[in-house]
Amino acid sequence: MFCMKDLPTREDFAPLEVYASLEPSSMLLFYQFLRSGSDLLTIFDDFLISHGISQGRFVVLLILRRKEEGFAPSDLAESAGVTRATMTGLVDGLERDGFVKRYDLHEDKRRTNVRITEKGEELLKTIFPDYFSSIADLMSDMTDEEKRIISKFLLKLDIGISNSKGAKSVA
Amino acid sequence: MFCMKDLPTREDFAPLEVYASLEPSSMLLFYQFLRSGSDLLTIFDDFLISHGISQGRFVVLLILRRKEEGFAPSDLAESAGVTRATMTGLVDGLERDGFVKRYDLHEDKRRTNVRITEKGEELLKTIFPDYFSSIADLMSDMTDEEKRIISKFLLKLDIGISNSKGAKSVA
DNA sequence: GTTTTATAGTTAGGTGGCTAACTATAAATG
DNA sequence: CATTTATAGTTAGCCACCTAACTATAAAAC
Predict the structure, then answer these.
(1) pLDDT (tens digit per residue) in B59-97
(2) What integer is the mean pLDDT of A46-72?
(3) Fewest beta carbons within 10 Å, which of A23, B30, B31, B59?
(4) Secondary structure element (H or E) that encloses residue B60, with its range
């Protein structure tokens, strides 16, 4: 979550113009983007919590739905973008509540296979209708053309992001 | 943070078309946006941690810089978008390390005033040059015209977001 | 002017991430 | 084949946020 509800204004940057590297338009967009992204994440979280599931758990169920034969916990972690340690906790909770099940793989005793259960599928089915319509509502002010433009922007931003990661200078 | 590195593709939504409320283009943009926003937040975090400060603390210092005479902790919490309890912890840590100082307000013994110290200012000054140039780099693929378009999009999204909040149906 | 209500800040305890270290098994190497 | 190295998963402990409850003070209402 990004902690800055009151975004700085263009005037706030005026006293900082001694810094040659300061680009107010980039700064403003950066903050605005973090703010919106963070708000969207919060809304997403709250929505799921009101349906009795955490974001992490929900995403695991969504991923499991993609492949009937199940996933290794490490693949789930990779797909979800969390550590294996975190995935252990998510799967523990989901299994305890009966939404997923672990199966042993006898060819390699280190490995495990995780599958969604019938109960897990049912949970998703109760959430989906609201979920889809809420997201559609969020985007309802935008035309398809606008969506296309934003999507292109996000790709450019991703390029900036991966460059940063590589350079390790990052912001 | 948004847990879903492998975003769903358009094909992933095909089996879900039984849901009338499903709008694949909205869903894809929603996920793409969450993903990029989350990546940006992570980069921002990592950058600050490499400079020895947490995001929450950094934002408090940025806010304090805006007003010489300082802020009440509750105003800081409001501006930062965190709870008062969280702000107590942030100010505790910053004060312990000498970056801010609490002052009593004698006209109302419940209240406190928090100000940035010289040491706090110095810390920001060591971070700023890198900070500004890193953000400028992130945005370097975009023209000013593009920034303007994105900014407009984000405002539209914010409208969707505040509508959701009001409706409490939210996604 | 006593009592009720509201406000500022803190404390206590919970959650969901993380890293680092550990266990068990498998694969590679001498 | 014995030993080293790598891999899958888990455990333990940290951090930053949250909510709910508490303390002290101030303001409002009888």
Answers:
(1) 999 999 999 999 999 999 999 999 999 999 999 999 999
(2) 93
(3) B31
(4) helix B55-64
- Pick the more confident residue, B3 or B122: B122
Residues of chain A in contact with residue B29, where contact means CB-CB under 8 angstroms, are 139, 147, 150-151
Residue B171 is predicted with a pLDDT of 35
Nearest to B66 by CA among B103, B115, B126, B133: B115
Extract the tokens encoding B16.
Answer: 């879900």
Whole-prediction pTM: 0.89
Judged on CB neighbours under 10 Å (0-12, 13-18, 19+), B68 is: exposed
Structure tokens at A51: 């349906």
pLDDT of residue B139: 86
Half-sphere exposure of B108 (CA within 13 A, CB side): 5
Task: Assign A170 a pLDDT band (cuts: 50, 70, 90).
Answer: very low
Q: Using CB atoms and an 8 Å cut-off, which of residues 6-45 of chain A contact chain B?
A: 6, 8, 12, 16, 19, 21-23, 25-30, 32-34, 36-41, 43-44
pLDDT in tens, B13-30: 988 989 999 999 999 999
Tell me the two tokens of residue A50. Answer: 């009101």
Q: Which two tokens stand for residue A151?
A: 């999507």
| Token duo for residue A38 | 């963070």
User: Amino acid letter at A150?
Assistant: I
The answer to whether A72 contacts chain B (CB < 8 Å) is no
User: Would you say B94 and B120 are in contact if contact means Cβ atoms under 8 Å apart?
Assistant: yes
- Å from the B24 CA to the C20 C1': 41
Chain position carrying tokens 């916990």:
A73
Assess whether B102 (CB) lies less than 7 A from strand C. yes
Residue A55: CB less than 7 A from any atom in strand C = yes
**Across the interface, which of B6, B21, B151 has its CB nearest the CB of A132?**
B21
Q: What is the pLDDT of residue B168?
A: 42
